[in-house]
Amino acid sequence: MKTIELTDRAAIDDVITRCPYCMLGLTDEEGKPYVVPMNFAWEDGHAYLHSGAEGTKTRLLEREPVACLTFCDGAELVWMHREMACSYSMKSRSVLVRGKVSAITDPDEKRRALMLMMRHFTQEPLRMSEAAVRGVRVWRIDAEEITARSFGNRPSEL
């Protein structure tokens, strides 16, 4: 099985937009990894996330505004030889995005980012109260580094 690097921006965006959530990776005050699943929106090389006004994510993002996001689509078990354990693999694609994080404080931009997140899940007409927009933290991650891979490819698929 082969792992191949994905470099086509459309293929990378396809992996990201197929994912119902991403994994947000941060580093805590002791240098330990802190990873949580998050809803998100993706637009033009920017990821948008939201969180409560207080809590671990907020504290860590304010302390060190850098993050790593992981997106992974697919999970198909594949093999080269059915009877050979080492020939098995999980066919999937993944994207890693590293970048700087900034808090969005402008109410109109917060609303726009929140609607982008909702559009990731539904096209239903939606409203947001001013109190809800004020009460939530919205974060933008500007992608500085994007790496993507496709795993579990048979030689005939390359």
Structural features, described:
By secondary structure, the protein is an alpha+beta fold. The protein has a single domain, classed as Electron Transport, Fmn-binding Protein, Chain A (Pnp Oxidase, Chain A, Roll), CATH 2.30.110. The chain is built from four helices and eight strands. Strands 1, 2, 3, 4, 5, 6, 7 and 8 form an eight-stranded antiparallel β-sheet that branches. A hairpin with a 2-residue loop joins β4 and β5.
Q: What percent of residues are in strands?
A: over 45%
CATH architecture: Roll
CATH topology: Pnp Oxidase, Chain A
The tally of strands reads: 8
- Outline type: globular
Q: How many domains make up the 3D coordinates?
A: 1
Order of helices and strands: EHEEEEHEEHHE
Helices, strands, pairings?
Blueprint: E1 2-5, H1 9-18, E2 22-27, E3 33-38, E4 41-43, E5 46-51, H2 56-63, E6 66-79, E7 88-104, H3 107-119, H4 130-135, E8 137-153
Antiparallel strand pairs: 1-8, 2-3, 2-6, 4-5, 5-8, 6-7, 7-8
What is the compact description of this entry?
The chain has 4 helices and 8 strands.
List keywords for this structure.
Pnp Oxidase, Chain A, about 25% helix, about 160 residues, eight-stranded antiparallel sheet, globular, alpha+beta
